Structure formats: structure tokens, C-alpha cells
Amino acid sequence: MNRPWTADLGDGLYRNPVLNADWSDPDVVRVGEDCYLTASSFGRAPGLPLLHSRDLVNWTLVGHALDRVGPAGDACPPRHDAGVWAPSLRHHAGRFWIFWGDPDHGVQQISAESIEGPWSAPHLLKAGRGLIDACPLWDEETGEAYLVHAWAKSRSGIKNRLTGHRMSADGRELLDEGRTLVDGDRIPGWFTLEGPKLYRHDGYFWIFAPAGGVETGWQGAFRSRDFFGPYEERVVLAQGRTDVNGPHQGGWVRTAAGEDWFLHFQARGAYGRVVHLQPMRWDADGWPVIGDAGEPVATHPKPAAPEQPVAAPAVDDAFPGGAYGKQWQWTAAPRSDWWTEHAGDGLRLTCVRTADAHDLRLLPSVLVQRLPAEEFAVEVDLALHSDEPGAKAGLAVLGDAFCWIGLEAGADGTPRLVHRYAEGVAESERDAAEARASPGGRARLRIEVTAGARCRFLADTGDGFRPSGLVFAATPWRWVAALLGLFATAPAGSGPAGTATFTAFRATP
Questions:
Q1: Distance between CA 175 and CA 475 in Å, rounded?
Q2: What is the rounded CA–CA span in Å between residue 463 and residue 442?
Q3: Which of 194, 260, 400, 429 does the annotation list as catalytic?
Q4: Which of these, 277, 275, 308, lies nearest to 14 by C-alpha position?
Q5: Distances (CA, A) of 107 to 30, 96, 133
Q6: 473 Ramachandran zone, left/alpha/beta (phi>0; psi -120 to 50)
Q7: What is the pLDDT of residues 445-472, one digit of tens each?
Q8: Calpha distance 450→430 (Å, rounded)
Q9: Is 25 a catalytic residue?
Q10: Closest alpha carbon to 32 in 52, 57, 18
Q11: Residue pLDDT, tens place only, 184-231
Q12: The one catalytic residue among 25, 104, 429, 448
């Protein structure tokens, strides 16, 4: 396997980030010697990714907990500002639990006996707009259960506030109207307080919550002897003298060896919110100290844990039997007729008829995965099986702006290589380079990504790789990272429009 990035340095040390891709708003839980992590998935499907590790450094993607996002019909077209925001992952009473805030519907929860599922259907615990970043707590000392959540001003008009409830033990009902636990407007200098994680430790209720904004913020900790407060606060992680901007919003985990660690994100533009691992200890006054005296570490000795092979979430895919790997998601809830499983290898996508083929940002039928590192290259083989004029398929970098290279059937049905892009303010794509002939309707496509998410597109139509067009600077999609995408479309109309087959998707450093 080619790994564009691995965090395990092989000498007992690790480097940050431990997950060098857009695993936004991570939360973590340990069960026995196994650690599990989930992250925001917004409107993509399947949602709620599930990662596994035994040492908090080497992670593999083991599946997803959510088949589709929101009520039927809500996820099409793509909504990259909606869906699953900042989930919390817990283990209680022999079950895994995930709570999250859907900013358009309210606080949702699901549970399962095994991390592999089956997961229960989403249960709406608290309805309302702007309810985000939900986290439960089952207090083993008292048997009581609680919930805390934050607010999205874009939906509710409220922000910088954390609200708490008593909750039924089965996690299906709130037992009161809720009260403000922490009002960030009352703390000098604090703003955009969100992303709370709720814990019990040393006789205190603890809320770990970030503030200060995604790009420039810090990690706060709040404690109180009573769940409903009052809470005292402290900044426990900030950029300081490092180059890790805005280090915050994640989860605390205690390993089987008794060590404390904190996983959090760093917002890195088009690369998204990459995940760092920080050592954590408690000072003489009982407050957490994260990183190196409150500043992020770049390298550090690995946690004391069972030996684990060097690993990272998969990127490569041979599409065995026409199936795609767990690393792929659709930009919205998929339909089963968008692809066809078959004998042999290769992903066979239907050329989906749509009036929106001019703008990949509008399409739910784009299969995407995260940028796997700061610098890497990806390649894929493409064959277009269509003579429908305007039918096309390709390899894309998708964000607020997008760019793709691939094959299109011309007016006479003859396939040709095309390269197109659209800037953020554009409503339709344009040519990035002149079209050229593609003998046999086949091409090898390549994207080379260098620092700053600068993307060079290349193609081989039988005479070796040749660069195409100018360098494209990838951009995030609102607060979602840029994504790699595969797609096949055709102009609106009736009847089948053909298919496209992608084979041997591969990433290299």
C-alpha cells in the first residue's frame, strides 16, 4: 500500500497530525484496549465515519454508522453546511452511542452493541434549528444522565453559549427545559464557544469546549461541582509559539495504561481539519495540561499501548467486483442506479442524466474522498462507454471552486479528452485546456498536489502523461475540505446514456 502520510515514525515516536486529512471535529472513546474515533460528515453519505486504533497513532477506517443523512429527500442536492455536525462517541451499558446536532432538525442519537453495527435508526432527542455539537454523559457515580449542546447562529440567532439538560438513562428523552451552563458573552475575550465534550473527573463535571473560531481559536476547559454550574474556566491549549493555528475541538481519552491524551483538529484550508494527538496531564490544582505546557507538540513518544502495524485510512481502491471502498462517500444520499456491481474489477458509474451537469457542486452523484496528505499524486484509469453527445466522466478536485479532467462524447459521439474548471463565483464550468482526441475512449488521469493544495492535472491517452492547463489552487467548500471526486453525467433527457468505468485508483507520495 502506498501511504502519502503516516504518523508513526517507527522509532517509538509519532508526528502530528496523526490523521493528515479532513476528519473534522473528532471525538474518541476507548473500550478495553481498542480506541474508536468519529468525525463530522455533514451532508455526505454514508455519514459518521468510524475509525479504529490501539495506539491513537495508527488509524484505520472500519465503516460508517449512518446510511443517509436527515429525513428522506433532505440530502439532495448536496448540503455541505448541513447534516452531521461535531458528533460525540461514547460507550455505556454495553452499547456504543453517537449523539450529534443536525443544525436544521435538532439533536439526534443512534446506538449499537458493536462498532460494526447494526446501528439503530436516528432518534430525534431535541427538535429545533441551530442545535449543534451535542454530547451526553452517563454519571457512573450518581446514575444520572445529562446532555450538553451548543448553538449555530446561522439557524437560531444564538451563539457563544452552552446549554445543558438532564436526560433519561436510555438517551431518548430530556427531563427538563434546559439551562445555560456557560455563557461565553460573560467571559472577557471569549467568542464562538462551541463543540462541548462532557466528562466526570475528580468530583467535577468537566466541559471541554473550544472558542475563538476555527482558524484562530483555543481549547477551553470548564469545571463545576454541580452539573448546572457555576463553572470556572481556563484555556488549556493554544497555538503559542507553534505553527499549529487554532488547535481545539476534540476529545479526551484515557488509555488502558492509564495515560491521558487529547485529540483535536487544526484547520488547514483546502486540506480541511486535520487531527493532532497531544499528551495530557493534570496539574496540582486539578486542571488539565495539554501538549507541551499548553502548546501543541510536533513529535512525541507514542502512547503506551499494544504493538500495532503502521496504518492510515485507505486511499487506493481496485474496486473489486465493481464495489467501492469505505473511504468513498457520495455528496448526498445515493440512488442504487448510480453504479453497477459486476464481475471483475473496476467501478462502473452510470452516466446520470441531469440538467446540472455544467456544475459538479450541484450534483449528489459524485463519489468523493478526502485529500490524503499535503503533497501527493493520484491516478485512475477511465473508459467511457457512451456515444451520447455530452456524456462525460472524470477525476475532479471539488470545493467552492472545482476542476476536473476526463472524457466526453462529442457532438458526433466520438470521445475526447477535456479539462474544465469553475471558480467560486462561476455558475458554470469552462474549458481549462483545449480538447484533444482520445483513441478508444480511454485515458489514464493524474492529479499532482503540492503544498498549498496546488493541483496539476495530467492525462495519458496513449502517448504518455502530458500536463493539461494551468495549475489549479484547490479551495475548501465552506467549512468542508476540498475533495477528490469521480463522476459520470449526461445531458437531461430520457433513456440510458451509457456508463463509465474507473479502475486502479492509486495514491503515491
A1: 44
A2: 12
A3: 194
A4: 277
A5: 23, 17, 8
A6: beta
A7: 999 999 999 999 999 999 999 999 999 9
A8: 23
A9: yes
A10: 52
A11: 999 999 999 999 999 999 999 999 999 999 999 999 999 999 999 999
A12: 25
